[in-house]
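All the exercises in this workshop are built on plain-text protein records. A record pairs a protein's sequence with a compact description of its fold. Backbone structure tokens are a discrete shorthand for how the chain folds in space. Once this layout is familiar, the rest of the handout is easier to follow. As an example, a complete record with its sequence and its structure tokens follows.
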Amino acid sequence: MKKIAVLTSGGDAPGMNACIRATVRRALNRGLSISGIRKGYEGLIDNDFVELKSSDVSNIIQRGGTILHTARSERFFTLEGRGRAAANLEEHEVEGLVVIGGDGSFRGADALATEYSIPVVGVPATIDNDLWGTDLTIGFDTAVNTALDAIDKVRDTAAAHDRLFIVEVMGRSAGFIALEVGVGAGAEAVLIPETPTDLEKVCAKVKDRVSRGRTSNILVVAEGDEAGNAFEIARKIEDMSGLKSRITVLGHVQRGGSPTTTDRVLASKLGWAAVDALLDGASPCMIGEISSSITHIPLRDSWTKRKQLDPLLITLSENL
């Protein structure tokens, strides 16, 4: 193998730049040339390649977002689109591909590996932390700390006005952010898709705390909770109990900002290991980290197997 390429795909995550940096420098360290592909699979179809040198990834480890940009690609879902992408890789003499992204990105990478025998390695980068085969995904720690800082500020206002606040965090199908933030912020309740939501119980808990003089009450809800989003939950709580609430939706602010040390170090480890995995013939696989050890799992396992929430955190969220 003489040349590889790297792309970022799907939603951006803090730490993607740190991963690009490590991938590029490890490739050069191993005697490879490396191309960056701009705008993910869209750029792969549009032949948007750029040769990368060590200096091109200087001073990016601290930056959020991704210098290669990212996009979601409807064309890549088609055989024609993937055929064009494979042809472009061949034109540029790329013999291996590192894909930094989440489950949708990995599905695309697996299709390239299956249909065109292109060696691919996935690096898990998604703030949702919902990929099986790694303790943490790149971006999760930063997103949690961003949300935690916001909730701490919301609690100051909640205490000043004796109000109930409902804070919505990202997580359409997974409650990892909500659970971690809820426990860290000392929220009165955490509502997540993985566990049933009993709003009557939540109302009773909040009323009890108010009767005992509690001046602030915070509920953390994942956007994909089965009871609805923050606005729907606020309406249901008022209908059930008369309790009025204020709503804060953190939204995409959780994806932005400078990555934490944890995300920078994780991204550096995984980007480095992805190049070695390509050269070792481990494709198609995902690089992860479990108990501080680098792991290689079949790429398809990352989304077909269900990552479980920490049961102790669920217990803490319900009882602390």
